[in-house]
Amino acid sequence: MKKWFLLFSTVLLIMALSACSSESGSNSGAEGNSNTDSITAWAWDPLFNVAALELAEKQYTQENKDFNLKIIENAQSDIVQKLNTGLSSGTMNGMPNIVLIEDYRAQSFLKSYPNAFYDMSDYINEEDFADYKIPPTSLGGKQYGVPFDTGVTGLYVRTDYLEEAGYTPEDLTNITWEEFIEIGKDITKKTGKKMISLNPNEPDHLRFMVQTAGEWFTGEDGTTANIGDNEAVKNAMRVYKEMLEEDIAHINTDWSSRIASFNSGEVVTVATGNWMTPSIKAEESQSGKWKVVPVPKLSVEGAKNASNLGGSSFYVLNIPGKEKAAEFLADTFGNDVELYQKLVSEIGAIGTYLPALEGEAFNQKDEFFGGQKVTTDFVNWMREIPRVNYGMHTYAAMDILTGELQNYRTGKKLEEVLNDAQKQAEAQLN
C-alpha cells in the first residue's frame, strides 16, 4: 500500500512539474500568446498605421477564419524604448510578433540585434517594392522588413497666394532651392505671407534636402560619418540658413504651431512628406486653394526633384508564432493589391508595393487640390526617390547638425561647421 502511495505521489509531482514547465514556456515572446493563430503587433498612429493593420486583418480573415491579430498602439518613441529594453535583455519576453519600425531606425535594430528578427526573404519579393525602401529594410543579403508606407515628399502650394503675386504652380515645378528662395522673396514682399514654415530646433528639411542628391550623413556602409566633405549637406545647410536670413520663413516651435501656420493661412507652401495631406485638408475652407508640385532639389550634380521624409516598415520578431506572422504580412502588405486600394481610399496611406500602384484608387481626382490626381503624382515622384542607406545613426547625426546649425546662424563659417560636425560624428558614431 505504501509503495502504491509513493508511486501515485510521484506521478502527481511529475504532472505538476510538466504543467509548470508548459506554462513557463508559453510566456516566452508574443506577450504570452500560446495560440500561434493569435499574434500581436505594435504600431503607432491609430488613424494611419493601426488602421492599416486593422484593414489587413479584415482582409486576411476572409480566408483565414481562425486568425486573430492583437494590435497594441504605442507612441513611436515608446516602441523604440521597449524594443531596445526587451531585445538587449536577451530574453524576448513580452515582445510582439510584428512591430512597425521607422526606416531611419531600422538598421540600428537589425545590426544591434542580429538574431532578433525573422528573415522574410522567402516570403516576399523585394523587387516588388520601391527601390529606395530596400537598403533600410535588409541586411547581409537578407530581407527582414516588409516595406510599407512611403514618405515621398512634395511641395504643397497655395494657388491663390501665387496668383496674387503673379505666379502659377508651374513656376515652382522642378526648381532648385535657390530658385525657391528667389521666388519666395518676391511672393513674401507682394503678399505679406511667409513662403515656408521652419523649426530650426528640429530641421527635418535637411534630411529630405540631402536625399534629393542621393546622399546621406553616413557613407554607403551606413556607419562612416559623411558630413565634412559632403556637398549635399553643405548645400542644404546654406539653403536652410538663407531661408531664415531672407525672412521668408515662418518660425514654428513644435508640431502644433507648424500645423497652425498653414491652416491659418500664414504660409504659401509646405515642403514635407505626403503624410501631411490629411492635416492640410483639415481646414475645409481652403478647399480648391492648394496644389502639390515636386519638392525643390539641391544644386548638386545628379540631384532630383524627389525625396523621402519618414516612412516605415513591418518586421517579424524571431519568437514563437513567427511563421504565422510572416504569412500574414506576406499575404497582405506583401502581396494583396486589393488591400492597397483600400489603404488609399479609406485612410490615405500610399504603400510602396509596386504592383498595386496602378489601381483605380491611385488615380482619383481630389477636389481639395483643384481636381489634381495627387496620389498619382506622389506615386510618380516616389519612383524617382534616390536610394540611400540611412544607416544606424540618422538621429544622432541630426542632433550634431542641429547644434552646428545654431553656430552657423550666429557667425561660424560653414566650412568650420561641417568640419566640426564631422569630428563629432567620427567620435560618436564610428
Structural class: alpha/beta
Instruction: State the major sheet.
Output: 5 strands, mixed
Overall number of domains: 2
Q: Helical region count?
A: 16
- How many E strands? 12
CATH topology of the largest domain: D-Maltodextrin-Binding Protein, domain 2
Estimated helix fraction: 40-55%
Low-confidence stretches: 1-36
Shape, per Cα inertia axes: globular
**Termini Cα gap:** 73 Å
Strand content: 5-15%
Give the class-level CATH name of the largest domain.
Alpha Beta
Strand order of the largest sheet: 2-1-3-12-6
Which second-level CATH architecture of the largest domain applies? 3-Layer(aba) Sandwich
Write down the Rg: 25 Å
- Averaged pLDDT: 91
N to C succession of SSEs: HEHEHEHHEEEEHHEHHEHEHEEHHHHH
CATH superfamily assignment of the largest domain? Periplasmic binding protein-like II
List keywords for this structure.
D-Maltodextrin-Binding Protein, domain 2, five-stranded mixed sheet, 16 helices, 11% strand, 2 domains, globular, 430 residues
Summarize the structure.
This protein has 430 residues and is α/β, with parallel strands linked by helices. The protein has helices spanning 2-25, 49-60, 76-89, 103-112, 134-137, 159-164, 177-191, 205-211, 231-245, 255-263, 277-281, 322-331, 337-347, 374-382, 394-409, 414-429, and strands at residues 38-43, 68-73, 98-102, 138-139, 142-143, 146-147, 153-158, 196-198, 249-251, 269-273, 290-293, 312-316.
